[in-house]
Amino acid sequence: MVAAGAAAVWVGWLLGPTGASAIVQIPQGAGAQVVGRILQDHGLVRSGRAFALYARWKKRAAQLQSGYYKLEGRGVPELLDDLTGGQAPVMVRLVFPEGWRAVDYAERLEAAGFDGEGFLAIVRDPPAEWTPAYVEGPTLEGYLFPDTYDLPKGADPDVVVTVMLRRFDREATPERLERARRLNLSVHGWVTLASIVQAEAGGAEEMPYIAGVFLNRLEAGMPLQSDPTVAYALGKRLPELDRYAGDFDVDSPYNTYRHPGLPPGPINNPGLEALLSVLNAKRTGENGLPYFYFFHAGGRLYLSATFNEHLKKLNRYYY
User: Fold this and answer.
1) DSSP-derived secondary structure letter, 238
2) Is there a domain that residue 6 lies in?
């Protein structure tokens, strides 16, 4: 009886509270033995092996969940509860703005402690088995939906990409896809055009008009002649473009001065307003004539139906 009592005390001590606290990372697919060793290394349990044996005895070893957790060493039973659904992983809130490129998102992820390089590698060369069928281009640029996301701290790159793709799927409703089809745009064409509108517009109120100009140009077989597509082709920012250095002569399918039609894919990740502007484009003026030209000057958008009208407005408001 004395021996049994001593053993019970010892087991109680072994599985009991340590008083420590720590933020720990439980890797994806980690088994009970690995988790126990991590907890022991952080002083949260006295024996990692005892934690693993207890988890198996309770038939909960397969329920251990990955992620970052802020844990208190309250005892093995309580820690097992925390790591099998009793506590949510530590989350990081990140804002991904409209119109940013994938490389910008990768930098933001890296700064927040995520694997930005791994994220960018997946975006640039996505696995075929889980790439959405509507992605016709070689990358996932354009489909990383801009939003505010609460991500598990240290989440794997594939998790981050999947979350953003699923968010895009929620906006690509059947009704919106049908409206794009009526404009002779595939999903890829819709997103590509929206990304150009996103880059060209000074605000949401301008987007439907700019979308109208580009839709009219596409329908008429005219080149889009969009500066942001050239910037994307060169990996530059818009203010860095240098016409005198030959930037606009770059031989790239993204150069919409040299190649008619849409470029091979989106040039950024457009937001919902840009996507909807394509579906609700303002294509004609009050006189019923289609818009084919636009420019910005003094914080305003100027639209024209003819090249002569465009030149007159440029001379009056721009130069």
Assistant:
1) G
2) no
